[in-house]
Specification:
The chain has about 50 residues and is mainly α. It has two helices and no strands.
Length: about 50
């Protein structure tokens, strides 16, 4: 995998972390949205581990 692809994956991973954090701190967090974001984050993490 090239560096630009890894950088893009890291940026997406960071974005998902930020979105999870923001949603978690809302007065009424959407648990389904958080679960979906966490699943997407784990898939990115797995892809990064293979890089």
């Amino acid at each position: 995998m090239n560096k630009s692809h890894i950088s893009a994956l890291l940026a997406k991973h960071h974005d998902l972390e930020s979105r999870i954090e923001a949603e978690s701190h809302r007065p009424n967090p959407d648990s389904r949205m958080i679960a979906n974001l966490k699943k997407r984050k784990l898939r990115l993490k797995d892809e990064l581990a293979l890089a």
